[in-house]
Structure of Beta-fructofuranosidase:
Amino acid sequence: MARSCCVFLICLFFSLMLGHGVEASHVIYRTFQNLQATNPDNTYRTSYHFQPPKNWMNDPNGPMMYKGIYHLFYQYNPYGADWGNIVWAHSTSVDFVNWTPRAPAIFPDQPGDINGCWSGSTTILPGYKPAILYTGIDPQKSQVQNLAVPKNLSDPLLIEWVKSPYNPLMAPTNLNQINASSFRDPTTSWLGPDKTWRVIIGSKRHRRGLAILYRSKDFVHWVKAKHPLHSAKDTGMWECPDFFPVSSQGGLDTNTVGLGIKHVLKLSLDDTKHDYYTVGMYNLDKDRYVPDKGSVDNDTGLRYDYGKFYASKTFYDSAKKRRILWGWINESLPQPEYVKQGWSGIQAIPRSIWLDKSEKQLVQWPIMEIEKLRGNRVDMPSSVLKGGSMLEISSVTAAQADVEISFGEIELEKAELMDPSWTNPQLLCSRKATSVKGGLGPFGLKVLASKDLKEYTAVFFRIFKGHNKYVVLMCSDQSRSSLNHNTDKTTYGAFVEVDPTNEQLSLRSLIDHSIVESFGGGGKACITARVYPTLAIGNWAHLYAFNYGSGSVRISKLSAWSMKKALIN
Ligand code: DQQ
């Protein structure tokens, strides 16, 4: 008792000394947020995943394509590698692969954002005029919504932004009963057939997550709707909502509404730090979104990515008629280590997303532009991978690679029975780690592996025989990814909606020094891992295909590419 009292008092002392958070999810450690690393360590920096030259980065903000230029803004701390002092940093690209840094687009300089410029979105207004809605933290630390527009529309780089004299445009008041510390992250707005703009803002009331709806005729004067667009009990704060129409034929402009058009509502749950989505229908008459039957809107629902991937945002690329998803991949190092390293946070490779044929889920695939970085290619002839075997994929730069592998002729009769209580894929993957031999699986890839296999990250499948179908499990096992005991070694898992009786089972992994981004079943399940190997670094990293199950599988396709370095900031 005396000991726990003492621990409590020490914690209290430090929290008072170090600063005070705006709220639990945004704790401000004043000692770290202005700390430039004296000796930055670039060992684990990525070669083709987006990151700033130094310091802290979190959410992608307001991505868009304007006059042939791709824009990415992001939450950035100019003074250190910890969260704080947040501005909207800005980079542009002509090819979606190489990026040039620009001056911060939005930074605190008026009462409506003097304590921070938090996440938000861009909307292209009629006349081809981009506009940013973002959350500002005001002098009372209340969250309010502000507008900024380009100073010079003829500059395709959109370097300078001016803030609206009407800011804040949306603010919590007693009358509208909004929780002032849970009111943030406006979405891209959409224009209804009634010529009225709509936007949603993430919020919560007690434990009920809310997508608060506002409407406007002129994009400046906004009125809160009586009902949220959607809400769900016991989900906590909804950060960075995203709401957009989808089709299995390609991307749709955010303003597309109409008969038979499905919508997706994505929520970043502050409680679990994962991005969840449902597929459903948008009822324009009632301005309500209703998830389809079976599309679950709580933390057991579908996720964009079952690993590290948060606060994501999509935009419609009108040039290529596709919807693109950006997402933030946070650290697996503990805070003192990333502060010392001098940088923190990466963006996932942008992904094209579309509705699966089943209309029950999304499919994601890395943008095709990234294939321009594919260098030396290695193809392996089709071969049977017997249970208990491993095959080295050599002649590629294993720490900077793109690998595609497909499995066929799977000995399905060897599948173990699926226990109906195995409903949580992450738990199942951590119970059945790489070393646990199964009937069918684990089979897949060992990446960022040291020669002696003291370190590796395994991305693999297991197949079980379910009640009336086979169940495919995809795992990303980080338990052996690093000899550094301080790194997060969570093992991630997802079920993949693939029928192995008549489909090949494919896996693609983008490996980039400290990141492994994997796409199972052609992009039906994605898992991103952040890993910090101590042995499998640079030229010391190896890549293997393996099968530790008792049943054999055939590698029907295996291509791997050394990836070239992109020019990033
Ligand atoms: N990050 C931003 C917030 C958002 C959170 C602050 C999500 O606007 O809710 O940096 O990571």
Summary: The pocket of 2,5-dideoxy-2,5-imino-D-mannitol is lined by residues 58-59, 75, 86, 118-119, 135, 184-185, 239-240, 311 (CB under 6 Å). Helices lie at 2-18, 30-33, 335-341, 425-431. The two ends are 52 Å apart (CA to CA). Residues 1-24 have pLDDT under 50 and may be disordered.
